[in-house]
Design brief:
There is one protein chain. The chain is mostly beta strands. 12% of the residues lie in helices and 40% in strands. It contains one helix and seven strands. A hairpin with an 8-residue loop joins β3 (36-42) and β4. The longest helix is centred in the C-terminal third of the chain and has 18 residues, at 91-108. The radius of gyration is 16 Å and the shape is globular. The N and C termini lie far apart (36 Å).
Length: 144
């Protein structure tokens, strides 16, 4: 079931002298159903670049706000608008993306990560996941 983005705002955050641009989407979570979300932003690339995943475990039936970074490494966007896609994904896709993120974070912390494969819904040791999802999108102009 598609979940509609109710509002979308652009925020600029300055951290350690580096400006980052975030798109924050808010939406109403359907109550009483386990929901998993992937929020992806189109800013510089032809396909989704940054994405954030979330579930409704602590927010079932409430308003959920998710912010995703949309800045390229130099902090300057080439486009004058951003499109954000809210995808309702299944639990196996969520678990795959969550474990990929955790494995990536281990490498960023500087500690050697134990070799591991992310959770997958493929058998026979294949990597990746299969997913069908519903999606809604909303665009917003970038303030100059």
């Amino acid at each position: 079931m598609p979940v509609t983005i109710a509002s979308l705002i652009i925020q600029e955050r300055n951290s350690d002298g580096f400006n980052e641009i975030f798109a924050s989407a808010s939406f109403q979570d359907p109550a009483g159903i386990e929901n998993y979300y992937r929020l992806a932003a189109l800013a510089e690339m032809d396909g989704p670049g940054n994405y954030i995943i979330d579930d409704d475990r602590l927010q079932d039936g409430g308003t959920i706000i998710i912010a995703t970074p949309v800045s390229p490494p130099n902090g300057k966007l080439k486009r004058d608008s951003i499109t954000v896609m809210l995808q309702s994904i299944d639990r196996t896709a969520y678990e795959y993306l969550r474990t990929v993120h955790e494995l990536q974070q281990e490498g960023f912390r500087g500690a050697p990560a134990s070799p591991a494969n992310p959770a997958s819904n493929f058998s026979s040791g294949a990597l990746g996941y299969f997913s069908a999802y519903s999606e809604t999108a909303k665009s917003i102009a970038i303030p100059k």
